[in-house]
Amino acid sequence: MANKFYPAVALTGGGTGALDKIDGMDLSDLDAAMVVTGNKAYFYTLDDSSGASESSPGVISPDTNAGNKRWILKGNALIGDYKGNWAASTAYVTRELVKDTSNNNIYYCNTSHTSSGSQPINTNTDSAKWDLIVDAAAAATSATAAATSATAAAASETAAETAETNAETAETNAETAETAAQTAQTAAETAETNAETAESNAEASAGALAWKYTFDSSTSMADPGAGDVRFDNATVASVTNLAIDATSADTGSPDISDLIASIDDGTNTSHEGFVTIRKSGTPATFAVFSVTGTVVDNTGWLQIPVTHVASNGAISDTNTLYISLTRSGNIGATGSTGATGATGATGATGPAGAGSDTPADTVFRITDQTDTTKKIAFEASGVSTSTTRTVTMPDKDLTLIDEGTEVKSTGEGGGTKFLREDGDNSCSWQTAPVTSVSGSTGAVADGDIDHDSLGNFAANEHFTQANITATGTIATGVWNGTAVDGTYVDLEGTELKSTGEAVTTKFLRTDSDGSCSWQVPSYTATSVGKHTLWIPAAAMRPTSSNGCAAITDVETTAGRPDLQVLDFDTGSDEHAQFQIAMPKSWNESTITFRVFWTSTATDTDGVAWGLQGVATANDDTVDVAYGTAVVVTDDNISAAEDCLVTAESTAVTIAGSPSTDELCFFRIFRDVSDANDDMAEDARLIGIQMFVTTDAGEDT
User: Fold this and answer.
1) What is the mean pLDDT of residues 63-82?
2) When comparing pLDDT for 150 and 278, which is higher?
3) In whole numbers, what is the pLDDT of the chain averaged over residues?
4) How far apart are CA 239 and CA 215, in angstroms?
5) How far apart are CA 368 and CA 296, in angstroms?
6) β-strands 506-510, 516-519 pairing
């Protein structure tokens, strides 16, 4: 005999209509049951050898003759929003469930309305706006009928045994015993018929918990017609799509398109739910499909993408079917990050450096490989306490020269030359005026002396060798200059300044005619270092997936500042996005940030804000992952609408190896899984301060 199906309106408690009320003696392995209670439907299969301990709703044991038989939960689904007992003058909307207290029936609202009249609902003036989904009387009658049939079968078996005993005892009355046996057989057959009738009643009750449809054997994915359903393949195991009409074949042809369309509303996109189809009157003929994609609403009919799970028997054109829809649960939250692994073993100590002595803690030395007596020592003892001095090498080869050495240019024509400041606000490279000076009196061996504005000389006084005697006497004056000393640097790429020039501070420029001149700067350079970028919430947008609320204007008091905020709720991580084309002067390194936010309540709860970024260059795809998020936490310290500011974050590394002229995308979010985030209300984002470091004065 086919497995039985049992409807129920309660899980436990032993009362009429409860799943555990069904006598274990009447149950067989793989019998099925559906329990509708509140706004949920629970689906069970009987395991006659389980023996597991009862744990509702997962495992339920019959109250009577249980043995090892247990009802095992296979799934559950929300079938609507349960509003409790029906009441007059109450606004109800589509998909809400109510209980008719006059007969304990459960109804589904198919049209939004305000209730009127009185119970029972099936005779109420609004009866057409409700669909019966649980007939309490039918469920109870089916269960009672099944129990009665089982009792009758047992009684018949006893009668047969009695008849057999009578037959064996009354050997002399064989005809009478035979007649009694035949009578018992007839009674047994009658009991079997009663049991089958009870099974049919149970199947009818199943219709109260599913939706009635008529099968259309066409495989075309189009509107199958009112109350009909189609498969896209004549072979059930090869079906990949269902075409189902918006209205079922139940009395009143209720429109259940919203219910059908909601089966893909979960976050488990790889498995949205199940569609279970049973043939009326033959529950062993069935088909179960897994919903694997988005339900398409074609206005009047819907197309459901599916994958075959299991089936049995043949479904033919015009067969009456009962269809139930079960949605999968949402994907759970991502677990917390695991603990940091143990620190690795310390590496082996490197070989000792060349040389016979060990430098002091403040000395770093470089030793020549060939001649270990040649060393370069870097001495740090002269650096101030808690101070770091940085030596930055230019991208070229260079030779260090001694302090006081003259600056020369060997690239000029005409031999070695010297840079001279002329009297007309310019400089020029000049042939060396003196090649050597000798003698205690400073006699000039050869060459000219030609210098303006030197101490003790007028601007127009120029002296040649003819004016200087062997004893160092100058015809028109006495040499009384001060020795020139200073520190010399590599000139390439380094600006020279002259604060002695008229007008203002100037810069030395090499002109196209081989000379140099002092020039007023054509721009005011921005200082190099840390700078602030302000990004208000109004410049951000909620992300398409798991986004925060849209931008909201919040009035504090009329005539006072309004707030433009993005609200992040406490239920799950929510995100917003913004993007910046960073300036060329940015050093393309890490950034930090501070969050400006407020609350809607007066308390001391905490919140956690995270920021992550990624850079994309010209012709790069934007479909790339963000970098590692950095989180800052803060606590509410005052009343609602007070401005709250977090501490500055640690360094945020931007993914994508950022370079110049690249677009940086940033995503800010509320990290509700952080231990500090215990604020029960929305956190309101006002904006963020982003801190970037520049390494150039401007963006040319």
Assistant:
1) 85
2) 278
3) 79
4) 14
5) 78
6) antiparallel
Element (H or E) spanning 220, and its range?
none
Nearest to 192 by CA among 234, 242, 152: 152
Give Dmax (Cα) for the chain. 176
Is the previous residue joined to 542 through a cis bond, with omega within 30 degrees of 0?
no
CB contact at 8 A, 223 and 298: yes
Q: How far is CA 433 from CA 153, 188, 444, 462, 531, in A?
A: 134, 138, 10, 12, 49
pLDDT digits (tens, 9 = 90+) for 73-128: 988 776 777 788 999 999 999 888 889 999 888 888 889 999 999 999 999 989 99
Q: CA-to-CA distance for 25 and 23, rounded, in angstroms?
A: 5
Contact 23, 150 (CB under 8 A): yes
Task: Summarize pLDDT for 537-582 with one digit per residue, the tens.
Answer: 999 999 999 999 999 999 999 999 999 999 999 999 999 999 999 9
pLDDT tens-digit series, residues 411-420: 555 556 666 6
pLDDT at 156: 55
Beta bridge partner(s), residue 635: 606
Is residue 433 exposed (0-12), middle (13-18) or buried (19+ Cβ within 10 Å)? Answer: middle
Q: Inter-axis angle of helices 174-207 and 136-169, to 10 degrees?
A: 170
Instruction: Output the DSSP codes for 360-407.
Output: PTTEEEEE-SS-TT-EEEEE-TTSPTT--------SS------TTPPP
Cα separation, 218 vs 243, whole angstroms: 10
Chain-centroid distance of CA 441 in Å reads 85
- Spatial separation of the C-alpha atoms in residues 245 and 232, rounded to whole Å: 14
Q: How far, in Å, CA of 115 to CA of 133, rounded?
A: 19
Joined tokens for residue 496 = 């020279």
